[in-house]
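Hi everyone, sorry if this is the wrong subforum. Our group has a chain we'd like a structural model of before ordering constructs, and none of us has done structure prediction before. Sequence below.
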Amino acid sequence: MNLAKRISTLLMLLSFTPTWAQVDGDPEAISPKEAITKVFEVLSKQEGRLPASADSTNVLLQKGAWEALAYVNAAGKDSLTKADLQEAVPDYYRFYKNQLLLKLINQDNYNEYGTEASVPYFCNGKVISILDPDTGAAKDKWTILYLDAYYLALDYGDLRVFFVQTNPQE
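Answer:
Right subforum, don't worry. Here is the predicted structure as tokens:
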């Protein structure tokens, strides 16, 4: 399935927030082109949304699980175009109180997970710090570009990934 169709299908399956879906009064009437535009605007930093408080951010992060949907590689680019938007493999992120469960797709078989890891993290509202399990020192920092009850976008530096909420797995 191409990226536009996958994004629009996933967006239509969710309960939309008004800023994502109000097209002629029908909350499910979002076209593939509009979905792609919305995801691109978030990943190119033209649009963002963050909760009002760090507590709200943590509640939303931990509400469910997140599946990667699309990404852009911004390395060495002054500006991005929609052509830079790529379909992501459905890596799985689950934020618990202080642990992040990562399930990364097997690069040899996209129908199964390969690497799974649980790492400590800390979120201060806009920045998620990935912590060293032995020392507690920050090993990496991710910036939250967008977060609401259904969508999450993270900036890893050169790579920006858009996620959709999914059912938690055990």
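For your construct planning: Residues 10-25 have pLDDT under 50 and may be disordered. The CA atoms of residues 130 and 140 lie 5 Å apart.
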